[in-house]
Amino acid sequence: MSAARRPSWLLSTLDGYQRRWIVRDVLAGLSAGAVVVPQAMAYATIANLPVEVGLYTCIVPMFVYALLGGSRAMSVSTTSTIATLTATTLVSAGVAAGADDAIGALMMLTLLVGVVLLLARACRLGSLVENISGATVLGLKIGVGATVAVGQLPKLLGESFDFSGHGFLRSLFAVGGAFDSVNVPTVLLSVGSIATLLLLKRFAPRVPGTLVVVAGGMLLVGIGGIDDLGVDLIAPVAGGLPTPGIPDVSEAVALVPGALAIAVMAFLESAAVARSLRQAREPQIDSDQELFATGAANTVGAFFAAMPAAGGFSQSAVNQGAGARSQLATLTTVALAVLVALFLAPVLSLLPEATLAAMVFTAVAGLINIPELVRWARISRMDFWVATAVAAIGLTAGLLPAVAVGVVVTLVLVLRELNIPRVRVVDRRGSALGLELERGLYTANALANERLIVETVTAQAEPVRTVVLGLPQQVVMSITVLDALESLDRELSQLGVQLQLAALPQDAVVVAARTPWYTALAEAGRVHPAVEAGLQASADAEPSGGVHPGEVPDER
Fold first, then answer.
1. Closest Cα partner for 270 from 300, 296, 291?
2. N or C: which end of the chain has fewer CB within 10 A?
3. 527 - beta bridge partners?
4. Which of 283, 264, 269 is nearest to 311 (CA)?
5. What is the pLDDT of residue 554?
6. What does the alpha-carbon distance between residue 86 and residue 89 come to, in Å, rounded to a whole number?
7. Model confidence at 315: pLDDT above 80
8. Which residues contact 175 (CB under 8 A, 6 or more apart)?
9. What is the DSSP letter of 105?
């Protein structure tokens, strides 16, 4: 389908596509698949789900995003953060690992995440969600990294229990309590796998370390028979493609809080990855398009037993590094995942649990970014304490409360910043003073700005008879703002100062013109297209004496 006939929202990354890019896209998709397929299988184990669920997440959500997404190189499957929140949510909802209803509850959770994202798109909340502070995200990632790392210790040590999804402290205490069940061959396999991943990442970054350790682990089982030494294998992998199913609606209410947290993090991660990968020659990333694409990927994926999905940085970086120019690379990754699901299930059943745990442990270790936290402590104490507090809540109370607190803290900080009045002196001509509000007025900051304007006027060395107030940022005009401006007009009038308005956006003028007060101002020539025009008009005219519309001037 040509770009002229294709809807703008469908396969937008193929706009301007050149045939000579096809080979590079196919190679990039295969390279990313070598990372994302085993990684997604490993992330499924974080939530105590069958590894084939990770495979399904590499098929359906990834395919849907490739059709609807705006990032040319981003690869969408599950991530360590999303997988951890999924595990926490399922445990909090009382869904037992391996229970018959676990897949139905997972499908319901993924569907709720998709619906939340689509509702956010309908309300055009993309830019609002992106305002969640970097300090909040850093704190969450530290909490996630530490929680997941501790949750993988039983599998790395070959201990006889699994406490994933129960939080950092409880998992840590449980690991210590079961230390007498450590299996030495499992520990050696874990150490070797982690060392291989780290060394390849450091000295041969183009080699897919996850694929190497997966192949090595299966060879040690198939040829070396290490499973006879007590090394646990993953549960048998069900072969074939995902089949449609119905989510378990009975779990919906209990899953809503977790779905909200996962939706926020899914969009934040996807938007951050998409923006970091965008090249200068490529179109800007549209937050609302990403909300729609990610929401649709999760909504459709829910009916095929996929985990909640988001843009993953590691596989996306491999994708771009290998030369991906469009989402055709992602479609190649999907095709690879389909082949694995169809033909390699018996081989995958030879995979040691410790190998997948080593992959997860290595991936999440990078989330515990203590050097970045130290750097923030030197630059901004407030950001440091926000990140530290969110991380501490994640490690003690749990990840879902940490997400909730992080969002609330962000909103408080944003409102605090918006509520700081900012008035700039533009110019002064004779007794006329030109001021401009650098932020729009709304309910919470109107009174503070009114006070600052009055203080600025009364603080002038020479008497002021006219104030020309520029409002170029006042795109949205409300009754509250109009009442505040009328109150300011009345207070300045009592001081012998006349208020004039300037630079109001047209949308605001349409609303303001419906009130008698603004109409009187306009008829009296006290509304101007710019502050400079108002100052010039005041300089050319006789002082008005500060009369409020409808009032009789005082005898002086």
1. 291
2. C
3. 501
4. 269
5. 45
6. 5
7. no
8. 150, 153, 154, 157, 159, 163
9. H
